Amino acid sequence: MILPPATLGMLGGGQLGRFFVSTAHEMGYKVWVLDPDPHSPAGLIADRHLVAAYDDYTALDDFAGGCAAVTTEFENVPATTLDYLAKFIPVHPSASAVAVCQNRIAEKTFLAENGLPHGPFAVIRCEENLRDIDGALFPAILKVARFGYDGKGQARVANRDEALHAFHQFGGESCVLEKMLSLDSEVSVVLARDESGVVRSFPAGENRHRHGILDVTITPARVGPVLTKLAREAAERIAGQLGYVGTLGVEFFICGGQLYVNEMAPRPHNSGHHTIDACVTSQYEQQVKALCGLPLGEARAHSAAVMVNLLGELWYDEAGDYREPDWSLLQAVPNLRLHLYAKHHARPGRKMGHFTVIGDDAAKVLDTAMHARAAIG
Ligand code: ADP
Ligand code: MG
């Protein structure tokens, strides 16, 4: 077991890393963050922020020398970086698990090989692949295999010509082409798994997206016990097959009453923010515990919760002028907890913060959260 006051290493300095840092601090640990952005939200509160690229080996040597173990909050850290660090200190999740989750081709192949339910797709590495595919895949979404997030690197395409055009726009990078599914709803399961294989799954969340970005998560998900159980079992199987250690997020589509795995995130997940305020143990606490070899906490929710993301557009008034939103409107709501990430600049579409409303009555919680969202704009 790695015990306080040991120093933990975090690759990536976004909001997920920031919650990890503050949680680890509460638990008595120190944290070093490695992120190239000097303004990164986690770097601002870390005990040390190494402002360096993820493949800067001088910085990685320094990092490995000062940390007892390393984890990540960002799936695009090169797997080679995780492999390199693992020569010196424990790294969780492993490079091999992250490598599967950071490449849509590897991810879909993993799902297919392990008999996990997924939607129809084709791997597109060159124009020829697009000419050869089954026309029944259209309408479809072309997604670059690497570095996509929040709907970026994705194009909705009605037919082969549009797909060819989008493929060129993406610079001919390897992609997956997914059949556009008519979604009943989307759910996610966030879980933690320790080195001995113990898994604790948080209650499934129901996710609503706007423009490809997560907007609202409702927990517990209102999809009935059968789909909830199937989602949980699939997520736990994925974690087992990956030999995963740490906090993992698995996104699902529900389409025609069937469950399909959409994608996996090898880190805490945006839809797991509610665990801070509504669960016995948060997803960040579990990440610390799994990393340090401590027994995982109980994942039970003590409250129903609705989480609402606050995106950068809130910082612009009707005339397009930049201003701070009027937080007093949210602070006036009982059982609402506001979390702001201290990001340097609000850009439209950028995740700047979120709030979570908790309570015993799920319908009332949703109503309160929607009113609060309408009030803030
Ligand atoms: P990201 O890495 O940006 O989260 P996703 O693949 O999860 O990428 O896509 C973002 C959102 O776009 C999904 O949560 C879903 O709402 C929508 N979407 C993605 N793929 C499909 C699909 N094949 N059919 C229908 N909707 C989709
Ligand atoms: Mg997603």
From TrEMBL:
It holds the Pfam family RS_preATP-grasp-like. One of its GO terms (molecular function) is 5-(carboxyamino)imidazole ribonucleotide synthase activity. Residues 108-292 form the ATP-grasp domain. SUPFAM superfamilies: Glutathione synthetase ATP-binding domain-like (SSF56059), PreATP-grasp domain (SSF52440), Rudiment single hybrid motif (SSF51246). The keyword ATP-binding applies. Keywords: ATP-binding, Ligase, Nucleotide-binding, Purine biosynthesis. The keyword Signal does not apply. Its EC number is 6.3.4.18. InterPro entries: ATP-grasp (IPR011761), ATP-grasp_carboxylate-amine (IPR003135), ATP_grasp_subdomain_1 (IPR013815), PreATP-grasp_dom_sf (IPR016185), PurK (IPR005875), PurK_C (IPR040686), PurT/PurK_preATP-grasp (IPR054350), Rudment_hybrid_motif (IPR011054). Pathway: Purine metabolism; IMP biosynthesis via de novo pathway; 5-amino-1-(5-phospho-D-ribosyl)imidazole-4-carboxylate from 5-amino-1-(5-phospho-D-ribosyl)imidazole (N5-CAIR route): step 1/2. It catalyses: 5-amino-1-(5-phospho-beta-D-ribosyl)imidazole + hydrogencarbonate + ATP = 5-carboxyamino-1-(5-phospho-D-ribosyl)imidazole + ADP + phosphate + 2 H(+). ATP binds at residues 104, 143, 148-154, 178-181, 186, 209, 262-263. It comes from the Bacteria. PANTHER family: PHOSPHORIBOSYLAMINOIMIDAZOLE CARBOXYLASE, PURINE BIOSYNTHESIS PROTEIN 6/7, PUR6/7. Homodimer. Catalyzes the ATP-dependent conversion of 5-aminoimidazole ribonucleotide (AIR) and HCO(3)- to N5-carboxyaminoimidazole ribonucleotide (N5-CAIR). NCBIfam families: PRK06019.1-2, PRK06019.1-3, PRK06019.1-5, purK. Belongs to the PurK/PurT family. This is N5-carboxyaminoimidazole ribonucleotide synthase. It comes from Aromatoleum diolicum.
